[in-house]
Amino acid sequence: MVLRAEQRIALERNNQLRYDIRQRLSGDFFSEHPLSELKRMDFWYFCSDDPNFEARCKNKRDVEILAYLNEKYIQYNKNLNSRPN
Fold first, then answer.
1. How many angstroms separate the CA atoms of 85 and 12, rounded?
2. Greatest CA separation found in the chain?
3. Is the pLDDT of residue 84 over 90?
4. Which of 5, 53, 63, 69 is surrounded by the most beta carbons within 10 Å?
């Protein structure tokens, strides 16, 4: 898959935003929202794959981002629980 320059820039922006949020909020978030270490990176990708990720998280206060992450955490766990074993 070949990405156009605009797509590459958008992807890099999304990756950087995900990285910044993860570095800043991961400890606090997972102290209150238990998730296996093995699933945490998958969770971050799940959050950042949402079309609203940038709108909900870019230039937002931590409390707003944590509210978004909480919503995604609920969705993520529902998805995990609906998968066949």
1. 34
2. 40
3. no
4. 69
DSSP string, the chain: -PPPHHHHHHHHHHHHHHHHHHHHHHHHHHHHS---HHHHHHHHHHHHHSTTHHHHHTT--HHHHHHHHHHHHHHHHHHHHHS--
Asked whether 42 and 1 are in contact (CB, 8 A), the reply is no
66 contacts: CB under 8 Å, gap ≥ 6: 25, 28, 29
pLDDT digits (tens, 9 = 90+) for 30-63: 999 999 999 999 999 999 999 999 999 999 999 9
**What is the predicted pLDDT for the residue at 2?**
63
Residues 41, 78 contacting (CB under 8 angstroms): no
- Among 63, 41, 65, 48, smallest CA distance to 10 is for 48
